[in-house]
Amino acid sequence: MRIGIGYDVHKLVNDRPLILGGVIIPYPVGLLGHSDADVLTHAIMDALLGAAALGDIGKHFPDSDARYQGISSLELLKEVTSKLTELHYSINNLDAVVVAQAPKLAPYLPDMRGNLAKILGLPLEDINLKATTTEHLGFAGRGEGIGAYAVCTLLKSKAAL
Ligand SMILES: Nc1ccn([C@@H]2O[C@H](COP(=O)(O)O)[C@@H](O)[C@H]2O)c(=O)n1
Ligand SMILES: C[C@@]1(CO)OP(=O)(O)OP(=O)(O)OC[C@H]1O
């Protein structure tokens, strides 16, 4: 069993959609980034890459590469999933938390979970998503940005042992 951790933050700005776990969330501001800035999916990718000792998303998908400009982070997650499969890793479970003072994310978590399960090829029970505020403290509490943490465990498939 191998464990990985991921953490990412993106800034909230005008004139950008708010996309988390591939779900477009109606909100007056959205996350700034080279890709679609889906901070939850980024933290999950970093956890998966970390567990496999494959570095981080900046190494695999540099923001200097025009191919990734505006890309859906779910497309990047597909690539990470393929890399894990090539190396005979399977995902055992995944847990993540989005740190956002607003909007209320609970209503959107089931759709995010469904999107992630589909791409990762996992049953829903292997994925858990949560949201928390910071009780108005810090950058997230002031609504300046949104952060996400993710932890996952990987198993090496039996065929590769
Ligand atoms: N952006 C958010 C933040 C929180 N929630 C839900 O509210 C619960 C209480 O949050 P606290 O930060 O006050 O502990 C939390 O457990 C989530 O269920 C949310 O939906 N969206
Ligand atoms: C995903 C990438 C690539 O488009 O860009 P961003 O959306 O800016 O995200 P970040 O978490 O800053 O770093 C990874 C990047 O290389």
TrEMBL record:
CDD domains assigned: MECDP_synthase (cd00554)
HAMAP family cross-referenced by the UniProt entry: IspF (MF_00107)
Pfam families: YgbB
Cofactor note: Binds 1 divalent metal cation per subunit.
Organism: Desulforamulus aeronauticus DSM 10349
Catalytic activity: 4-CDP-2-C-methyl-D-erythritol 2-phosphate = 2-C-methyl-D-erythritol 2,4-cyclic diphosphate + CMP
NCBIfam families per record: ispF
Identification of the protein by name: 2-C-methyl-D-erythritol 2,4-cyclodiphosphate synthase
Function: Involved in the biosynthesis of isopentenyl diphosphate (IPP) and dimethylallyl diphosphate (DMAPP), two major building blocks of isoprenoid compounds. Catalyzes the conversion of 4-diphosphocytidyl-2-C-methyl-D-erythritol 2-phosphate (CDP-ME2P) to 2-C-methyl-D-erythritol 2,4-cyclodiphosphate (ME-CPP) with a corresponding release of cytidine 5-monophosphate (CMP).
Keyword set includes Lyase: yes
